[in-house]
Amino acid sequence: MLVFVLNKHGKPLMPCKPSKARKLLKQGKAKVVKKEPFTIQLLYGSSGYKQKCIVGIDAGSKNIGIAVTTEDGRVIYKAQVELRQDIKENIETRRRLRRARRNRKTRYRKPRFLNRRRPEGWLPPSIRARVEAHYNLIKKLAQIIPITEIRVEVTQFDVQAILNPNIHGEEYQKGRMHGFDSVKEYVKIRDGFKCHYAKLRPDIPCSGKLTVDHIIPRSKGGADNPSNLVCCCEAHNTAKGHMNYEQFTGQQPPKIEDFRPVAFMNVLKDYLVPMLQKIASTGYIFGLYTRRTRREWGLGKSHIDDAMAIAGIKPRWQDNVWYYIKQVRKKKRSLHEEIPRKGRKEPNKEAKRNSKNTKEIAINGKKWCLWDKVYISDIDKTGFISGFTNNWVYIQDIYGNYLQLSDKYKQINPKKLQLMYRNNNYICERFISTL
Ligand SMILES: [Zn+2]
Fold first, then answer.
1. Is 288 exposed, middle or buried (0-12, 13-18, 19+ CB in 10 A)?
2. Does residue 291 share a domain with residue 146?
3. How far does residue 397's CA lie from ligand 1's centre (Å)?
């Protein structure tokens, strides 16, 4: 275990051993500023030595691995992060509720025209949230560790290298898919710039120019997403016209996997890397090479192992502590509930949980907020407040399992709880790995 250290001015220094931290605290030379990861701030001037600290990020749309390795191969920080997956659903709910509201008898509002085009750099909310989560996590980490370099893994495979092994230099840096705004280009890359119908309909000769074809034609409601698109030449595209795949080829349409994770990785390269650049110099590598490194170093398969391989320095020593961090939803600003009150006709008007913007309850002058980390002495466990009844609370562990005091009720009386500290959008649990 390591204790993270800040200097007198709040700037990060190298972490130290708990014994040293204990001594400093005892002598009144330092104070505790953060419980998890445990961080102290020195109260006296110390220039402190700093080493190069390299962060490896195994980026992902659901799980992220983070590892910090020093230049001499000491792994000083390890974390696995679970991201929220409910953004898309929430945005869709909001959209549906807004639409319903507009169609009710309401005041007249002039139509607006400033919302007909997406601004430059727009990303779907679910992806934007993920990119920002990566950035925020590293920004937070930079507050306790003197980060000098960041390395991110951006794609499972090296698209450019597969298609055109001879490109290098600036062309390679930018990528021929710069921006990746066009799904069409993506589909062409995915299908290797080959006409999908060339072998299925050899009676029609292929033309030189490539485009994409909708498997289910757009006129019949086919979507514009990659799973409905194949790379195809203009001749075959024109010949197919409004026909279904079956009519045109006499075969069942292929089942195309969802390639969103891959698309997400490309988003990372174009959006996240420039953002991280603001924190420290950032470089990116391809998953292909990570796998090889991991095998050579005899690392496992977890996201943290990946992150250590991505950091690029062979681990000589590893801290036995690792953190499981989970992104949670703390605030809610929706105007109204879809279901006013579960199972009842009347909306819940007076109960405390109805005031959604302040998710907290006060009992005997003690305030309990959403995602507070609490200790339950009866079962000797720590958990997080995940919800409220009128006067009691629900407690979950980091994996989302309810902690209960009785078999009958999930809710727990706050009298039984001891507040450890409060949380905002991330909850965190420390684990000791037995190596
Ligand atoms: Zn063709």
1. middle
2. yes
3. 55
> Do 408 and 371 belong to one domain?
yes
Contact between 154 and 269 (Cβ < 8 Å): yes
Rounded distance from Cα 208 to ligand 1 centre (Å): 8
pLDDT of residue 115: 83
Instruction: Answer yes or no: are the C-beta atoms of 64 and 58 closer than 8 Å.
Output: yes
In angstroms, rounded to a whole number, what is the distance separating the alpha carbons of residues 294 and 308? 8
Q: How far is CA 131 from CA 196, 267, 290, 428, in A?
A: 33, 8, 21, 20
Q: Are residues 156 and 300 in the same domain?
A: yes
Query: Are 294 and 148 part of one and the same domain?
Result: yes
Q: Are residues 209 and 239 in the same domain?
A: yes
Q: Would you say how long the chain is, in residues?
A: 435
Contact 62, 84 (CB under 8 A): no
**174 token code pair:** 């930018």
Which residue range(s) make up the domain with 12? 4-42
Cα atoms in the 13 Å half-sphere on the side-chain side of 259: 21
Task: For residue 194, report the distance from its CA to the centre of ligand 1, in Å.
Answer: 8
Q: State whether residue 420 is helix, strand or coil.
A: strand
How remote is the CA of residue 180 from the centroid of ligand 1, in Å?
24
Distance 213 CA to ligand 1 centre (A): 10
Phi-psi region of 89 (alpha: psi -120 to 50; beta: other; left: phi over 0): alpha
Q: Is residue 124 classed as helix, strand or coil in its secondary structure?
A: coil
DSSP state of 402: B
Query: Which regions in the chain score pLDDT beneath 50?
Result: 157-181, 352-353
Predicted confidence at residue 173, as pLDDT, reads 46
User: Does 414 map to a domain?
Assistant: yes
What is the tens place of the pLDDT at every residue in 336-349? 666 665 566 666 56
pLDDT at 180: 33
Specify the pLDDT at position 18. Answer: 94
| Residue 264 alpha carbon to ligand 1 centre in Å | 29
The CATH number of whichever domain residue 64 belongs to comes to 3.30.420.10
The pLDDT value recorded for residue 68 is 96
Q: What integer pLDDT is reported at residue 167 of this predicted model?
A: 39
> Is 369 in a helix, a strand, or coil?
strand
**87-103 and 125-141 helices cross at what angle (nearest 10)?**
130
In a domain, 110, yes or no: no
Residues 144 and 79 in one domain: yes
256, 281, 315: which is the final residue of a domain? 256
